[in-house]
Amino acid sequence: MQLQQLKHFWRDEEGATAIEYGLIAGLVSVVIIAGLAVLGPNLKDLFTTISDKVSAANTTATAGGTTPPAQ
C-alpha cells in the first residue's frame, strides 16, 4: 500500500505547474525592474519637463495672460 502511494506521489505533477507559474512571474518581475532601472532617468526627465510646462501654463493663465495655443 505504501509503495503505491509513493509511486502516486512521485508521478503527481500538480505542484510542478504552480512552481512553473511562480518562476514565470519572477522572471517577468525581473524584466520589469530592469526596464525601469534603464528607463527611470529618462522617465524622470520627461515628467519633469511636463510638470514645468504645466506649471508655466498655469502661471500664465492665473496671471491674466493669454494661454499658448494647444498643439
Overview of this structure, please?
This protein is mainly α and 71 residues long. It has one domain. Helix content is 83%, strand content 0%. The chain contains two helices and no strands. The N and C termini lie far apart (78 Å). The model has no long low-confidence stretch (mean pLDDT 85).
Tally of helical segments: 2
Outline the biggest β-sheet.
Answer: none
List the domain count as a whole number.
Answer: 1
Low-confidence stretches: none
Distance between the termini: 78 Å
Oligomeric state of the chains? single chain
Helices and strands, with pairings:
Elements: H1 2-11, H2 14-62
What distinguishing features does this structure have?
71 residues
Brief sketch in words of this structure:
With 71 residues, the protein is an all-alpha fold. The chain contains two helices and no strands.
